[in-house]
Amino acid sequence: MLGYTIDPTLIASLTDQQQLVTIVERGVTTLLVLHLVAAGLSLVTLLPVFLTCCIFHNAAWIISLIGAITTGIVSAVVFAADIALVLVARDEIQNAGFNGIAVDFGNGVWMVLAGLVVTWLAVVALSIKVCRCCGYGRKQDHYDPYYGGGY
After folding, report:
1. Count of domains observed in the chain
2. Which of 71, 125, 138, 140 has its Cβ near the most Cβ atoms within 10 Å?
């Protein structure tokens, strides 16, 4: 038990099928756990990024980039699942004829979207640093033992 409770009578009244109640409960619980995983990955990705700002070796930056890409993929899955959940719930409630219940995009969906955008911007910035593209780190006027630069 993860501490999330969903009213099974509401789901049963919307679908008129009792076996769907357990499927919906498991799906929503999985979605809520995915939110926690995405938040944890964001924290785990944030720490190496701060530490690599002081390290000039490329391996630490590559590890940060891999963590950021993993976080971006998990966040994208969570965002897609949130969108799908809201759209399916909205359609099911409208089709069932419940006039007093409305489902719309709340603050959680927008916060996941903001985190997703920031994560992918971090992936782009880390990719520029690791790949040394866009003119970043192409100075040849100093000796760099890690990248083979000359005087």
Report:
1. 1
2. 71
